[in-house]
Amino acid sequence: MSAISSRRIALMSLCAAIASLLAATTPAMAASYPVYTYSSYVTTMNGTSAYNAGCALGTKVSAGSRPADAFVILDFGFPIYQSSKWGTLLNTASYPFESTAAIATVVENFGHGWYECSPSGPYKVRVGIGENSANVVVGGVAHNYFTSGDGTAWAGLAVSVNSWFATNGYSSQVSAAGAADIENASGWASASSAEAWLDAFSNATSYAMYDFGSANGCSYANTYADNPCNSSWTTSDEWYVSWHGVAYPAPEDYNQTYSCANQGCSYGNVDRNSRQWEAISRYGYHHQSGAIRIEAVVTQHEACAQNGCSSGTNNTPAQGDGDMYNALNHDYAPSETGQSLDWTTDFEWGYTLS
Questions:
Q1: pLDDT tier for residue 7 given thresholds of 50, 70 and 90
Q2: How many CA atoms lie within 13 Å of 70's alpha carbon, on the beta-carbon side?
Q3: Can you tell me the distance from the alpha carbon of 47 to that of 103, in angstroms, rounded to the nearest whole number?
Q4: Which of 9, 60, 88, 297 could bond to 66 as cystine, CB 3.0-4.6 Å?
């Protein structure tokens, strides 16, 4: 996986008449953020639709409007064990059950479409096969299926899809990984369940797993302690599910509550979401094997435009990427957390924009 090339720091100006003043006070652009992809909350299991979405992305790669090294998450909803099969309840109005075998077919079609319509050569896409860690209600009772059994099944899903890519000659350019929207919130998996899920996934495969969740309630102050977060989680729990075993963090950066980076406004904005992950990374630096590496930044700007969302949570991909980069490279301890960011992806409902 190649890192994004070095980023340029440039001062912004609004008016030539006051350029000298603005040069001292206006936040700089944090980075020349990478060309982003769209990720999908999957709303149809139709194989042709998945193939066409992959093809549309591949075509845009050819045109240069999507990255040559791309990362996409396909989120299939709520984990469940039903009729002796692991799978998910798709996040649509009727919440249909979809088995891991059916999910594999959708991802395979998406990867096939990308391969057929993208350029040959050093072009790649990694597809994160996603689910969330939320409870589901069965018979009026809430159950959480985000457990070790589901983790093993989800790892098998990644293995199966990658085997299919290899058999069909696509694996030089197309790969699959696990992905999970792990949230520390009421009605979602406990820290112990989420950690057991990750342990099972990591024990079953060496393929990567991307945590594209949030760090709800975790400290965003200048800290590297093992602080409390929401729902009895702690900083160390967040570190574990995003950096232990085969896990990599691909955190949500939705927040639009901005402030200047600690080193000054000339380094640009940071927000609470990015500061939370900066603190988690610093915790790793001081108390574990080292700072975590943020593999991707996830936003929901398009999904908000489609269906609405909570106020102030609709960062654009440029904002999310820039805020996270500034937090890691220009905020409280850049010598500990400084890094480049490989990917940026923005969620949408369905396969609208690819």
A1: very low
A2: 32
A3: 10
A4: 60
Give CA–CA dist 205/153, Å, rounded: 11
- The residue type of 93 is A
**In the numeric block, which tokens belong to residue 247?**
């896990």
Q: Would you state the structure tokens that stand for residue 302, as one six-digit string?
A: 């398009």
Q: Are 107 and 165 in contact (CB under 8 A)?
A: no
Q: Is the pTM of this model over 0.85?
A: yes
CATH architecture, range 33-349: Alpha-Beta Barrel (3.20)
> Any idea where the domains of the chain sit in the sequence?
33-349
pLDDT higher than 70, residue 331: yes
Mean pLDDT of 223-228: 97
CA–CA dist 268, 55 (Å, integer) = 36
Handedness of CA 110, 200, 79, 250 (dihedral sign): negative
Give the 3-state secondary structure of residue 147. Answer: coil
Nearest to 134 by CA among 77, 50, 178: 77
Average pLDDT of span 204-222? 97
pLDDT digit string, tens, across residues 166-210? 999 999 999 999 999 999 999 999 999 999 999 999 999 999 999
Number of H helices, E strands in the chain: 10, 15
- Can you say whether the dihedral through the CA atoms of 72, 66, 271, 7 is positive or negative? positive
The per-residue DSSP string of 215-253 comes to -TT---SS--S--B-GGG-BHHHHHHHHHSTTEEE--B-
Take residue 292 and report the two structure tokens written for it. Answer: 């975590």
Structure tokens at 131: 């689910």
Average confidence (pLDDT) over 210-238: 97
Q: Is 81 helix (H, G, I), strand (E, B) or coil?
A: strand
Give the Å distances, CA to CA, from 298 to 22, 36, 212, 252, 308: 31, 10, 7, 5, 17
Please name the residues in contact with 94: beta carbons below 8 A apart, sequence gap of 6 or more: none
**Among 125, 117, 105, 109, which Cα is nearest to 171's?**
125
**What phi-psi label fits residue 287: left (phi over 0), alpha (psi between -120 and 50 degrees) or beta?**
alpha
| The two three-digit tokens of residue 12, written as one number | 């912004």
